[in-house]
Design brief:
This is General transcription and DNA repair factor IIH. The protein is of the alpha/beta class. The chain has 14 helices and 17 strands. It has a 6-stranded mixed sheet, sandwiched between helices. A 3-stranded mixed sheet has the order 7-14-13, with no helix packed on it. A 3-stranded antiparallel sheet has the order 8-11-12, with no helix packed on it. The longest helix has 20 residues, at 8-27. It binds zinc ion (ZN) (4 copies). Residues 330, 332-333, 335, 351 line the site of one zinc ion.
């Protein structure tokens, strides 16, 4: 630091800039701004600075714990005519914008996924900063997450581990059947939060149940963490190293605040870290993990040597036993069952697909499952909002044959949504150049995953 003399402004500025650099990533530079204004000591500058800051803050979403009570009916705004049309269109536009940001080219993804869901069941989950309570909201979102996850990843399997009383607690075994997984968290009383969480115990337990998995499948851990402490028996950094070695991707959704170890777990293993601001943001953070992860981030972690050649893997399509077949022992539960599937290689009877055969280790999938996973590899390109019709526009939507409105509506005039909302209600596929209505656009991209015009 230069000596304090003569040119006071120079000294101050130099001091501030070096200090503010260090704090940039913590406070979005707000800290730096404040210091600079203080250093200059000019009333005009300070006033302007604080004004800017105030404006920026009001634009941001408030944290749930900062906000007063909210009235959900106030968030839906009617337009002048008393209609909810604009509110609905605004929601659609938000979805479209998110889709436009997604990569539309084919990238390599891991479609055979194994996820361990680690739920914090410590007493901090009883906090009511998220309504109705952290615990109830987590259970509700977990259910929705599991349903959506299996819909998008029919070849995947989910297991659930709870963190309670300083221990990891096995709540649901790894299973490819959504009903089994949902059943594991259906009993609210059995999961009643209590005591302190232990990150290390829970991660070790999750790691143990994924250690047998073959290398072509992804290993993922999603931690929902409400506490700000962890009570571990050993060094958690050893566990972190073990996760990196096992190529386990750890993602953390924190309900309270950022913890360094949580951030580090996510960063070093290629996962995602996020702190929940409010109920909607919580859901967004969680559902970001539904689409299969791109494979490049995994290769980046291993030190840059990208292996582009794909490994072939064996899969078997099982024979479904007819309902009238005689009872026989299944290999997964050792129970007498009349229905199930036969492993094509060793003829063992299993209850559910997809699964790995307990006898010969062959991966057993049904062909519809395999086909359903396919769309992630070749996503439908986002449709473009049409602002001007050409010479002879098609009068009807190519998807549902609904007639397009004759004259443009006024909603497209808002400059922030103009590029995502078409005033004509038309959305055009860049490949087949057919026009679709807004409803069909959402349906094609969220449910169908195939453009009806291109087929
Ligand atoms: Zn069985
Ligand atoms: Zn078999
Ligand atoms: Zn349509
Ligand atoms: Zn098309």
């Amino acid at each position: 630091m230069p000596p304090r003399r003569r040119d006071g402004a120079y000294v101050h500025n130099a001091g501030t800039s070096s200090e503010s650099e260090g704090f940039d990533d913590i406070d979005d530079g707000n800290y730096g701004d404040k210091r600079k204004n203080k250093g200059k000591g000019k009333a005009k500058d300070t006033g302007k600075g604080s004004q800017d800051k105030g404006k920026g803050k009001s634009k941001e979403q408030a944290y749930a714990w900062e906000a007063t009570y909210t009235r959900s009916w106030d968030t839906v705004q009617e337009d002048e005519g008393g209609s909810l049309q604009t509110a609905v269109e605004d929601l659609l536009a938000r979805g479209r914008r998110r889709r436009l940001l997604e990569p539309s080219s084919a990238i390599r993804r891991t479609i055979i996924r194994h996820l361990m869901l680690l739920l914090d069941l410590s007493s901090s989950m009883l906090d009511r900063d998220l309504r109705p309570s952290r615990f109830d909201l987590t259970l509700e979102y977990s259910r929705q997450f599991i349903v959506e996850w299996f819909d998008q990843n029919p070849l995947g399997q989910i297991g659930i581990v709870g963190m309670r009383g300083g221990l990891g607690e096995r709540i649901g075994d790894m299973s490819g059947n959504p009903q089994d997984v949902l059943k594991a968290i259906s009993d609210r009383r059995r999961l009643q939060p209590d005591g302190d969480p232990s990150l290390q115990n829970a991660i070790d337990m999750a790691r143990g149940s994924m250690s047998h998995l073959p290398t072509h499948s992804s290993r993922e851990i999603l931690i929902i963490y409400g506490s700000l402490t962890t009570c571990d028996p050993g060094n958690i950094h050893d566990t972190l190293d073990a996760c990196i070695n096992d190529k386990i991707r750890v993602s953390v959704v924190s309900l309270a605040a950022e913890m360094k170890i949580c951030r580090e777990l996510a960063n070093k293993t290629g996962g995602v870290f996020g702190v929940v601001m409010n109920e909607d943001h919580y859901k967004e953070l969680m559902f970001e993990l539904v689409p299969p992860p791109a494979q490049r981030s995994a290769s980046r972690l291993t030190g840059g040597s990208t292996n582009f050649s794909a490994d072939l893997m064996m899969m078997g399509f099982p024979t479904r036993l007819p309902d009238t077949s005689p009872l026989s022992l299944c290999v997964c539960h050792s129970q007498l069952k009349g229905e199930g599937f036969l492993c094509p290689r060793c003829k063992a009877q299993v209850c559910d697909v997809p699964t790995d055969c307990d006898i010969c280790g062959l991966m057993i999938v049904s062909s519809p499952h395999l086909a359903r996973s396919y769309h992630h590899l070749f996503p439908v390109k986002p449709y473009q909002a049409v602002t001007e019709t050409g010479l002879s526009p098609s009068p009807k939507c190519h998807g549902c044959s609904h007639s397009f409105p004759e004259k443009p509506s006024a909603t497209g005039s808002d400059p922030t949504t103009a590029d995502v909302i078409s005033p004509l209600g038309r959305y055009r596929c860049p490949d087949c150049e057919k026009d679709f209505c807004a409803d069909c656009d959402v349906f094609v991209h969220d449910v169908l995953h195939v453009c009806p015009g291109c087929q």
